[in-house]
């Protein structure tokens, strides 16, 4: 067995790495009482950084 070295990563560094590559968040939430669906929420989100190489979709083209 090999020993895995423990590395501490700052939250800012982790967030920077995630935004550089992009993150996709998906989820479903259903509020149900007595087998009757009252509320259903579907979440689909893409979180990514925006820069000169990847302009914002709402911005004007360069």
Count of helix runs: 1
Largest sheet: 2 strands, antiparallel
What would you call the structural class? alpha+beta
Please provide the count of β strands: 2
How far is it from the N-terminal to the C-terminal residue, by CA?
53 Å
What is the N-to-C order of secondary-structure elements (H for helix, E for strand)?
HEE
Strand content: 35-45%
What radius of gyration results from the CA coordinates? 19 Å
Identify low-pLDDT runs: none
* Spatial order of strands in the largest sheet: 1-2
Mean pLDDT: 77
Helix coverage percent = 10-25%
Shape: flat
Question: Could you characterize what this model shows?
Answer:
The chain is an alpha+beta fold and 62 residues long. It has 1 helix and 2 strands; from the N terminus they run H-E-E. It has one helix at 11-21; strands at residues 23-33, 36-47. The chain has a two-stranded antiparallel sheet with strand order 1-2. The longest helix has 11 residues, at 11-21. The N and C termini lie far apart (53 Å). The model has no long low-confidence stretch (mean pLDDT 77).
Brief characterization of the structure:
The protein has 62 residues and is an alpha+beta fold.
């Amino acid at each position: 067995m090999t020993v895995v070295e423990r590395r501490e990563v700052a939250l800012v560094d982790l967030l920077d790495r995630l935004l550089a590559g992009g993150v996709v968040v998906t989820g479903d939430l259903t509020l149900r009482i007595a087998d009757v669906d009252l509320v259903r929420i579907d979440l689909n989100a893409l979180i990514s950084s925006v820069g000169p190489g990847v302009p914002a979709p709402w911005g004007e083209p360069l």
